[in-house]
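Much of the work behind modern protein science is quiet bookkeeping, done one molecule at a time. The fold becomes a row of whole numbers, each drawn from a learned catalogue of backbone shapes. The protein below has been through that process, and both of its lines are reproduced in full.
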Amino acid sequence: MRKPFADRRSRPNTGPLGWWRQRSSSLRFSLAYGVIFVLSSVLFLSFVWWGTLGMMERQIQQAVTADAGSLSDEWVSGGLPVLARTIEERLEQNVDDDAIYLLVDPAGHVLAGNLAAWPRTVARTDRWYELQISRSGVRGIVISHGFALPENFRLLVGRDVRGRNILRRLLTDTMLWAWVMLTILAIGGTVLVRSLFRRIINSITRTTAAIATGDLSQRMAMTGNGRELDQVASTINEMLDRISRLMDGVRQVSNSIAHDLRTPIARARTLLEDASLHARSEDELRAAIDRAVGNLDNITAVFEALLRIAQIEAGARRAAFTRFDLVPRLRDIADLYEALAEEKSLCLHVDLPDALAFYGDEALIQQAAANLLDNAIKFSPPGGSIRLTAREQPGRAGQMPRRPQVMLSVRDEGIGMTPEELARATERFYRANTARDTPGSGLGLSMVQAIVTLHGGEMHLLAASPGTDAQLILPLVPPPAPAVTQASSLPHIGERS
């Protein structure tokens, strides 16, 4: 009877690769490294061995061929006597005693040379022969080649290669010892690679295990040498820092929502409860309901602003990107807020160029400018001034390529903020101490920051003494992102906020 699938699967893997699959990743990785290292060293040493011996043999063959050609010239110029005398002279001048010559007549009688007879194995003149010979009672190995001369005379030229054989043994021993040393190095490298691999894996495991239990303060240790392990650790630590900041942001937003929305909700409930218990007429009841609805509308506006910021940060509005002239849009916003500034006895100055070709979401850019102007008017004392400016400037140094940018600035002469407040001004629901009594939700600058980030720009809040200077640095040309390039052909679908 066949066992259930789960039972069959639970059995240990006993196949040829079962042991390998059951080993740890660090062991498999290090063993694979060691095997590749050893095989590579074997191939390299074999190549050196064969290349060296092959080069020596080619040199011997070239020397024999050149020597035979020279003797052939002697035969042509002087005939048999000159050739025989030349062979004897060369044997006398051969200091290394490695030259082999033999000249025989058609009957096989030796005419000149240092061999006793023509070797029987040398039957052809179109190939090389390796012969074992004995000279003066000493056996040796000769690489030789036979040559046919006119009138059936034959010439044998060769070289004794005993030195080559000695070198071959020496080279072989050297290669074997080198291979042993490389194998030892491979084993040491395998142990080292496994140690490094396990160290980084254990570090990641410890860090992620601590984070899984709720300890977001854990970080991977760095060696300080700036190499690959430190790069991995730095990337993971940056990711953890980002996660920690996001978690802090979520907690802060949750606390801010609970704190800022509790008051209007409680106020609306109190109004409705008071009207239910004490209203003496329908008009009083309706008035209480209207005030409660107003408070609830403020709550709804806060949630709509939060949802809008989330959509902007997620890049959902990127499909509305299009090319347009930024200057008319800014003038429209300035005209809209000029009347509000006059009501508070403020002077709004506008300094804009004739045109600024821009690529982005028209409605969102107008929303950002409107939020900045609204804040400037809200926190400026009567008699002050507000300045809206925009100008083109070159890209940042080190930016490749350096794309032109627009610097949009809204500067007021209001109550201003401290450096600590400026650093936190873009946090959701954050309000400076001097703005606690001013109507608002603390989401205006958060939305501006999200819009600027969506457009690939930067936002800077600077102390103006008096007041605040809010600067938006935005690229004037689309960044090299496929999504943006594809969206440029879509119709404008943004809505004015």
About this structure: The radius of gyration is 46 Å.
